[in-house]
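pipeline stage [seq->struct] | target=Ubiquitin carboxyl-terminal hydrolase | organism=Aspergillus campestris | residues=309
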Amino acid sequence: MADGGGWSTIESDEGVFTSLVENLGVKGVQFEELISLDADTIRSLSPVYGVIFLFKWMRDQAPTQTTTTPLDGTYDTTPPENLFFAAQTIQNACGTQAQSQANPAHRTRPHPPLLQRLHNRLPPDLRGEALSNSEEIRTAHNAFAKASPFVDETTRDANEEEGDAYHFIAYTAVNGTLYELDGLQPYPISHGSCAGAETGGGEDFAEKVIGVLQRRIARYPEGETRFNLMAVVRDLRLRASEIGDAELMEREERKRRAWAWENTLRRSNFVGFIGEVLKGVAGMKEGRGEFEEWVEKAKGETQRRLNRR
């Protein structure tokens, strides 16, 4: 990937996000993909420190300079000191920003040094600017970009209108309140009380956050399914070790090995390999005198597919 100085698009994937926060210095947590809006599933992963929600961004739902109230909930113009909120100022940085805001560091352990400095020294708008211009965070983020010799996502025009745009936001419970943390909004959004929030999500978190998400999804046209939800939870290997669950430990270790392999593939560019394979096949066909017949057959198959379309 060319180093264009920008932020590349990364996948909404539990292995990517877990590795990303670990590279940023957050330990003892992981991300778990949630395949349904089910309170029991969220509770089974307790403690749950927050959730990351990916959705198709719609212009008509974006805040404007005249916006005084969000579509759901209320702006908290004086959020608690231990709530990390940062305004998003750079395209494609929302994934890293969302997981930074949802991580449990503000409740259970110190932030990684860089995020702690941003939290202590800067207001939310400048936190976002500093985060977006951090070489350390940008490098960790871009390490999970899809490699391509043809398209450099870091140089994409910020005003580009082609294709659908997607956005990450976070929901977390702090000081007994459920917050929505969206870097495109001017303030954190409060969704009311959330009992037991200090224990890692609390008794009300699952029901409360699902209700908010359901109302948000209901604003989309019927049939829209392009959403993704991940929970930020305590490292499940720690739970397995504490309760002596060998089966859970082995399952989680297999998952980590799979994540490591998948992340290696994400960083790889296979165009050269594919080119060499094609050259080898072409050379074999030519050596057998079958090259022209092979090419004509391929042309015929392509034409038939086009005709069917």
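stage status: PASS
auto-comment: The mean pLDDT is 78. Residues 171 and 180 are 5 Å apart (CA to CA).
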